[in-house]
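Lecture notes, structural biology module. Today: joint structure prediction for complexes of four components.
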Amino acid sequence: MTKLDAPAPESASAPARRGPPAKATAQGNGDTREGILDAAEDLFSKHGFYGVTIREVAREAGVDTALVHYYFGAKRALFDAVFLRRAEVWNSERVDAINRYARDPGPDGMTLEGLFEAFLRPPFQWSLKGGPGWKHYAALVAQTNANPTFGGETMARYFDPAIRRLIELIQQIMPDAREVDLYWAWHNMSGALTLTLGETGRLDRLSGGLCRSGDLESACDYMIRFAAAGFRAVCAPEGRAG
Amino acid sequence: MTKLDAPAPESASAPARRGPPAKATAQGNGDTREGILDAAEDLFSKHGFYGVTIREVAREAGVDTALVHYYFGAKRALFDAVFLRRAEVWNSERVDAINRYARDPGPDGMTLEGLFEAFLRPPFQWSLKGGPGWKHYAALVAQTNANPTFGGETMARYFDPAIRRLIELIQQIMPDAREVDLYWAWHNMSGALTLTLGETGRLDRLSGGLCRSGDLESACDYMIRFAAAGFRAVCAPEGRAG
DNA sequence: GTCTATAGCTTGATAGAC
DNA sequence: GTCTATCAAGCTATAGAC
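The predicted structure, tokenised, for the full assembly:
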């Protein structure tokens, strides 16, 4: 069982490593570190933590296995480093977007569609236009969110505050909504978001090519309309609000 | 890369194994075989294919590792056997349910809510009351659906026909809906279903205990209302139908 | 910083006694 | 059918030269 238990995630007060730099230093070769993270991000997103070996990461990064340990220590620390690298920008950007929208929603005031547009578009845009790293990261987040073992603390620390802020703003639009309904509605939306960002290709096959998993522009448009209607149905029955 | 490539799934024309029984034989001890499948199902659903070792499966099943290979051959074949065991009953039951509903929808005719109730309730009920094996299986399906590498062929073979039948019946309710819209709407609903059946516990933490992942009765109720409204918004804009 | 070399262990799978 | 015993290969991680 030992191996299957989730290895201890990066702890706040951990010594973490022996001597090497936790981040790229001024004189040090930051490219090597970033290259290892890129390779690990790619592989972890496709095969999961246990489906990737340090050797494969090293090979894809074009470095030696010892170097991976030199920079990141244990394998789990490498995973956490991958996950953390983009977590903050990912979430701060969409929180900024909904806060901007709340400040200046336009003449008609805030709508669920407008709010979701602000909240969802950034991750979709990163995935589409941020380069392959961001696409891999999106898939990694999707996979991690669907897995109870990994990233529990990290997901909660970085992602939950963003979601809570979103729900606060939804409450401004639907002041009579019950909180429990809001969370369940979010859960439905979150599942859709997760599956979409994974780009598994299942929809392509199911639809006989009619839909493409990679068409994230469409996916985002559909999700906004689908979720807004879903929230209204679940949180504002009998025309209470919304 | 070799290890990471998806091992060949159970092929239709494969010899598969050397001598041992592919299924429980009359005189053979079917309990052992089933016990191995139960253990593997549990572990795979929690840690994924690469996160589980044959030794752990054997230990949890209370048998020797050699016996696992005796019954199932390679590790991937064991995974496929786990996945296949409940796939047919899982899907045939929900297809039967929607077909029954389509034949006798009640006085008001078919509704999206009624159809989704018929389609969604069976897997939720299995997960709630079918014993731990069914709960593990639900989580395994959820995880597999979200992963591009595994179960591609198996998922398509057993699950896609059921979904296509569901979409056919939705088309009877919303005859003017465009097919592409129906598939994208399904995709949103599928993501919610997947995340819910995984019971990851993320929602419990996010909501501060207000919602419980294990409360599948509520989860199903919410999903039906959320998805029905979502389908209408996406597939029947401007009150075309539905 | 980057490498070679290797320790120390675990893995999937098999051979063969019973 | 079930076990013991074992193999070859692969793994993470480290020590130490440069």
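Point to remember: Chain B touches chain A through 68 residues (CB under 8 Å).
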